[in-house]
Amino acid sequence: MDFPGFSNVDFDVFSIDGLDARMAALKEEIRPKLESLGQYYAPTLATLTNDEMFAHVAKHARRTKNPPIDTWVAFANNPRGYKMLPHFQIGLWGTHLFIWFAVIYESPNKKGIGMKLESHIDEIFSQIPDEFVWSGDHTKPTATPHAQMSKEELLDLFQDLQTVKKAEVLCGYHINRDTAINMDSALLLKKIDEVFQKLVPLYKLSI
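The chain above was modelled as a monomer; its predicted structure follows.
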């Protein structure tokens, strides 16, 4: 695949003032790379999940004032959308690259998914690598390393998904900006693939 990797220019997009200027830079610098990653990983994820996968590059089309502070390509088993479904993401904040499995607040089956994750808490807690991270809010860049999570805290995430309207569960891997820009593109693709392989069991539980 003709993927050059990410550069300082990509991460600097999120420092550009103004909606129009930032969107123009995002479309020029980052979106082509996300589209390439979408084309590359949709078949990979289809093989890993045994589910047809479609790539959805964020368009940020509803924004009229505030410029986007992150961007991504998402993968789900529906060609029309992903937010209502368990899905995967690759994307950027100004500080880091993220690779996620996500169930976000738009999902109509959050309660059932939360119950399924809760019922498998022991195997999830033991099988997720220490360097992976968890989040309960996809709109914030921060996340908690699995190594710092107690089983009770993880259980709280799963139970909130069942009862709290805005609750979310995201699990994945962060690569800080400096590391990402210095990674050879082949090495980065390999790392993303390895992360997805570790996240697929969460996806299978969630569908």
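The chain has seven helices and seven strands.
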